Amino acid sequence: MRPTLYTFSGAPRGWRVLLGLAFKGVGADVKTLSVSNQDHKKPDFLALNPRAKAPVLTAGDTLLRDSVAILAWLDRAYPDNPLFGETAEDAAVIWQIAMECREYLRKGNQKLLSRAFFTDAQVPSEGTEDHQSFQAEAALVHTECRYLEDLLSDGRAFLAGSKPSAAEAVAFPEIRLLQRAVETKNDLMTAAGFGYPPDLYPKTADWKNRLNAMPEVAATMPPHWNEDTSLAKSA
Ligand SMILES: N[C@@H](CCC(=O)N[C@@H](CS)C(=O)NCC(=O)O)C(=O)O
Protein backbone atom coordinates (compact mmCIF):
# COMPACT_ATOMS: atom_id res chain seq x y z
CA MET A 1 0.00 0.00 0.00
CA ARG A 2 1.27 3.48 -0.90
CA PRO A 3 2.55 5.20 2.25
CA THR A 4 1.33 8.57 3.52
CA LEU A 5 3.88 10.86 5.13
CA TYR A 6 2.93 13.73 7.45
CA THR A 7 5.64 16.34 7.76
CA PHE A 8 6.41 20.06 8.03
CA SER A 9 8.04 21.98 5.17
CA GLY A 10 11.77 22.24 5.91
CA ALA A 11 11.73 20.21 9.14
CA PRO A 12 14.90 18.11 9.24
CA ARG A 13 13.40 14.89 10.59
CA GLY A 14 10.62 14.70 8.02
CA TRP A 15 13.17 15.59 5.36
CA ARG A 16 15.09 12.42 6.34
CA VAL A 17 12.08 10.36 5.27
CA LEU A 18 11.59 12.31 2.03
CA LEU A 19 15.23 11.53 1.19
CA GLY A 20 14.83 7.85 2.14
CA LEU A 21 11.83 7.60 -0.20
CA ALA A 22 13.75 9.46 -2.93
CA PHE A 23 16.89 7.28 -2.69
CA LYS A 24 14.75 4.15 -2.84
CA GLY A 25 12.48 5.44 -5.61
CA VAL A 26 9.36 4.81 -3.52
CA GLY A 27 6.35 7.10 -4.00
CA ALA A 28 4.28 8.41 -1.11
CA ASP A 29 1.44 10.84 -0.51
CA VAL A 30 2.91 13.76 1.41
CA LYS A 31 0.68 15.78 3.73
CA THR A 32 2.41 19.00 4.73
CA LEU A 33 1.35 20.19 8.18
CA SER A 34 1.25 23.90 8.98
CA VAL A 35 3.17 24.94 12.10
CA SER A 36 1.41 28.32 12.20
CA ASN A 37 -1.99 26.57 12.18
CA GLN A 38 -0.65 24.14 14.82
CA ASP A 39 -1.92 21.22 12.69
CA HIS A 40 0.21 18.83 14.73
CA LYS A 41 -1.76 19.69 17.88
CA LYS A 42 -5.20 19.03 16.34
CA PRO A 43 -7.17 15.90 17.31
CA ASP A 44 -6.80 14.18 13.92
CA PHE A 45 -3.02 14.35 14.09
CA LEU A 46 -2.82 13.61 17.84
CA ALA A 47 -4.68 10.38 17.10
CA LEU A 48 -1.70 9.41 14.94
CA ASN A 49 0.96 10.74 17.29
CA PRO A 50 -0.03 11.84 20.80
CA ARG A 51 3.45 13.40 21.12
CA ALA A 52 2.41 16.00 18.51
CA LYS A 53 5.59 15.52 16.49
CA ALA A 54 6.21 14.86 12.82
CA PRO A 55 7.13 12.90 10.78
CA VAL A 56 4.46 10.23 10.94
CA LEU A 57 4.14 7.59 8.26
CA THR A 58 1.11 5.39 7.68
CA ALA A 59 0.74 2.49 5.23
CA GLY A 60 -2.18 0.09 5.69
CA ASP A 61 -2.03 -1.07 9.32
CA THR A 62 1.47 0.36 9.79
CA LEU A 63 1.75 3.57 11.83
CA LEU A 64 5.25 4.91 12.52
CA ARG A 65 6.30 8.06 14.35
CA ASP A 66 10.07 8.13 14.36
CA SER A 67 12.08 9.26 11.33
CA VAL A 68 14.86 6.69 11.67
CA ALA A 69 12.43 3.87 12.41
CA ILE A 70 10.63 4.88 9.23
CA LEU A 71 13.88 4.58 7.24
CA ALA A 72 14.44 1.09 8.70
CA TRP A 73 10.85 0.08 7.84
CA LEU A 74 11.19 1.40 4.29
CA ASP A 75 14.25 -0.79 3.77
CA ARG A 76 12.35 -3.93 4.80
CA ALA A 77 9.10 -3.04 3.05
CA TYR A 78 10.87 -2.06 -0.20
CA PRO A 79 14.17 -3.97 -0.41
CA ASP A 80 15.45 -2.40 -3.66
CA ASN A 81 18.10 0.34 -3.32
CA PRO A 82 18.91 -0.39 0.32
CA LEU A 83 19.37 2.55 2.69
CA PHE A 84 21.29 0.44 5.20
CA GLY A 85 23.70 -1.34 2.84
CA GLU A 86 24.03 -4.91 1.64
CA THR A 87 26.28 -6.47 4.28
CA ALA A 88 26.46 -6.60 8.07
CA GLU A 89 29.53 -4.36 7.97
CA ASP A 90 27.80 -1.80 5.70
CA ALA A 91 24.71 -1.78 7.91
CA ALA A 92 26.76 -1.16 11.06
CA VAL A 93 28.75 1.68 9.49
CA ILE A 94 25.62 3.36 8.08
CA TRP A 95 23.68 3.01 11.35
CA GLN A 96 26.60 4.45 13.28
CA ILE A 97 26.96 7.54 11.05
CA ALA A 98 23.19 8.06 10.95
CA MET A 99 22.87 7.81 14.73
CA GLU A 100 25.88 10.05 15.37
CA CYS A 101 24.41 12.72 13.07
CA ARG A 102 20.99 12.32 14.69
CA GLU A 103 22.53 12.67 18.14
CA TYR A 104 25.24 15.32 17.73
CA LEU A 105 24.79 17.24 14.47
CA ARG A 106 21.04 17.68 15.09
CA LYS A 107 21.61 18.86 18.65
CA GLY A 108 24.25 21.37 17.58
CA ASN A 109 22.15 22.62 14.67
CA GLN A 110 18.98 22.86 16.73
CA LYS A 111 20.31 25.82 18.70
CA LEU A 112 22.26 27.62 15.99
CA LEU A 113 19.54 27.25 13.35
CA SER A 114 16.76 28.24 15.77
CA ARG A 115 18.73 31.41 16.43
CA ALA A 116 19.13 31.98 12.68
CA PHE A 117 15.57 31.21 11.59
CA PHE A 118 13.34 31.89 14.58
CA THR A 119 14.89 35.03 16.17
CA ASP A 120 15.93 38.40 14.73
CA ALA A 121 19.27 36.71 13.88
CA GLN A 122 21.34 39.62 15.21
CA VAL A 123 24.94 38.83 16.13
CA PRO A 124 25.08 39.05 19.95
CA SER A 125 27.32 41.77 21.41
CA GLU A 126 30.77 40.59 22.48
CA GLY A 127 31.20 40.09 26.20
CA THR A 128 27.54 39.18 26.78
CA GLU A 129 26.28 35.84 28.05
CA ASP A 130 24.35 35.46 24.80
CA HIS A 131 27.57 35.86 22.82
CA GLN A 132 29.14 33.06 24.84
CA SER A 133 26.13 30.81 24.15
CA PHE A 134 26.31 31.70 20.46
CA GLN A 135 30.00 30.77 20.31
CA ALA A 136 29.31 27.47 22.08
CA GLU A 137 26.50 26.67 19.62
CA ALA A 138 28.75 27.42 16.66
CA ALA A 139 31.60 25.33 18.12
CA LEU A 140 29.30 22.30 18.44
CA VAL A 141 28.32 22.54 14.78
CA HIS A 142 31.93 23.01 13.66
CA THR A 143 32.88 19.83 15.54
CA GLU A 144 30.24 17.87 13.64
CA CYS A 145 31.21 19.41 10.29
CA ARG A 146 34.79 18.29 10.96
CA TYR A 147 33.44 14.80 11.63
CA LEU A 148 31.74 14.72 8.20
CA GLU A 149 34.82 16.24 6.54
CA ASP A 150 36.99 13.47 8.05
CA LEU A 151 34.61 10.77 6.81
CA LEU A 152 34.84 12.16 3.27
CA SER A 153 38.59 12.74 3.38
CA ASP A 154 39.46 9.40 1.71
CA GLY A 155 37.69 10.51 -1.48
CA ARG A 156 34.49 8.49 -1.03
CA ALA A 157 31.49 10.04 -2.80
CA PHE A 158 29.03 9.51 0.06
CA LEU A 159 29.34 9.26 3.82
CA ALA A 160 29.37 5.45 3.98
CA GLY A 161 30.75 4.62 0.53
CA SER A 162 29.81 4.96 -3.11
CA LYS A 163 26.02 5.27 -2.77
CA PRO A 164 23.70 7.56 -0.82
CA SER A 165 22.40 5.78 2.27
CA ALA A 166 20.48 6.44 5.48
CA ALA A 167 23.57 8.40 6.58
CA GLU A 168 22.80 10.98 3.85
CA ALA A 169 19.10 10.92 4.78
CA VAL A 170 20.01 12.09 8.29
CA ALA A 171 23.01 14.34 7.57
CA PHE A 172 21.98 16.13 4.36
CA PRO A 173 19.00 18.09 5.77
CA GLU A 174 21.26 19.46 8.51
CA ILE A 175 23.98 20.62 6.13
CA ARG A 176 21.46 21.94 3.60
CA LEU A 177 19.76 23.93 6.37
CA LEU A 178 23.16 25.36 7.31
CA GLN A 179 23.58 26.43 3.66
CA ARG A 180 20.14 28.03 3.79
CA ALA A 181 21.10 29.92 6.95
CA VAL A 182 24.33 31.13 5.30
CA GLU A 183 22.29 32.34 2.30
CA THR A 184 19.56 34.09 4.27
CA LYS A 185 21.22 35.08 7.59
CA ASN A 186 24.72 35.74 6.36
CA ASP A 187 25.91 38.15 9.07
CA LEU A 188 25.03 35.76 11.86
CA MET A 189 26.45 32.73 10.06
CA THR A 190 29.64 34.61 9.13
CA ALA A 191 30.07 35.50 12.81
CA ALA A 192 29.57 31.78 13.55
CA GLY A 193 32.40 30.98 11.12
CA PHE A 194 30.14 29.60 8.39
CA GLY A 195 30.11 32.43 5.88
CA TYR A 196 31.67 31.72 2.51
CA PRO A 197 34.05 32.01 0.75
CA PRO A 198 36.29 30.37 1.74
CA ASP A 199 34.46 27.18 2.56
CA LEU A 200 36.03 25.64 5.64
CA TYR A 201 34.74 22.18 4.76
CA PRO A 202 35.42 21.67 1.04
CA LYS A 203 34.73 17.92 0.91
CA THR A 204 31.46 18.35 2.77
CA ALA A 205 30.56 21.21 0.41
CA ASP A 206 31.28 18.97 -2.62
CA TRP A 207 29.20 16.16 -1.09
CA LYS A 208 26.32 18.57 -0.42
CA ASN A 209 26.53 20.00 -3.95
CA ARG A 210 26.59 16.48 -5.42
CA LEU A 211 23.37 15.70 -3.54
CA ASN A 212 21.82 19.10 -4.38
CA ALA A 213 22.37 18.29 -8.07
CA MET A 214 20.48 14.96 -7.93
CA PRO A 215 16.94 15.54 -9.31
CA GLU A 216 15.37 13.20 -6.75
CA VAL A 217 17.06 15.18 -3.95
CA ALA A 218 16.13 18.54 -5.53
CA ALA A 219 12.50 17.34 -5.43
CA THR A 220 12.70 17.12 -1.61
CA MET A 221 13.61 20.80 -1.09
CA PRO A 222 11.18 22.54 1.28
CA PRO A 223 8.23 23.83 -0.76
CA HIS A 224 8.13 27.16 1.09
CA TRP A 225 11.68 28.01 -0.06
CA ASN A 226 10.22 28.66 -3.52
CA GLU A 227 7.59 31.05 -2.25
CA ASP A 228 8.33 34.71 -2.85
CA THR A 229 7.26 35.76 0.64
CA SER A 230 8.97 36.60 3.91
CA LEU A 231 8.70 32.89 4.74
CA ALA A 232 11.28 32.26 2.02
CA LYS A 233 13.79 33.80 4.40
CA SER A 234 13.03 31.37 7.19
CA ALA A 235 13.66 27.71 7.84
N1 LIG B 1 11.90 11.26 17.26
C1 LIG B 1 11.19 12.01 16.35
C2 LIG B 1 11.29 13.51 16.67
C3 LIG B 1 10.38 14.29 15.79
C4 LIG B 1 10.43 15.79 16.03
O1 LIG B 1 10.93 16.28 17.07
N2 LIG B 1 9.93 16.53 15.04
C5 LIG B 1 9.88 17.98 15.11
C6 LIG B 1 10.07 18.57 13.69
S1 LIG B 1 11.67 18.21 12.99
C7 LIG B 1 8.48 18.39 15.55
O2 LIG B 1 7.52 17.72 15.28
N3 LIG B 1 8.36 19.55 16.20
C8 LIG B 1 7.10 20.11 16.53
C9 LIG B 1 6.99 20.50 17.97
O3 LIG B 1 7.88 20.12 18.76
O4 LIG B 1 6.02 21.20 18.31
C10 LIG B 1 11.71 11.68 14.95
O5 LIG B 1 12.92 11.72 14.71
O6 LIG B 1 10.90 11.39 14.11
> Largest beta sheet: what is the strand line-up?
2-1-3-4
Structural class call reads alpha+beta
How large is the count of helical segments?
9
The helicity comes to 40-55%
Uncertain parts = 228-234
How many domains make up the coordinates? 2
Assembly state (oligomeric): single chain
Helix-strand pattern: EHEHEEHHHHHHH
How many beta-strand segments?
4
Q: List the bound ligands.
A: glutathione
What is the mean pLDDT?
A: 94
Corresponding CATH architecture of the largest domain: Up-down Bundle
What is the level 1 CATH name of the largest domain? Mainly Alpha
Percent strand equals 5-15%
What is shown here, in short?
With 235 residues, this protein is α+β, with helices and mostly antiparallel strands.
Structure description:
This protein has 235 residues and is an alpha+beta fold. The protein folds into 2 domains: 4-77, Glutaredoxin (3-Layer(aba) Sandwich); 88-233, Glutathione S-transferase Yfyf (Class Pi), Chain A, domain 2. Helix content is 53%, strand content 7%. It contains 9 helices and 4 strands. Strands 2-1-3-4 form a 4-stranded mixed sheet, with helices on one face. Glutathione binds next to α1. Glutathione binds at residues 8, 11-13, 40, 52-55, 66-67.
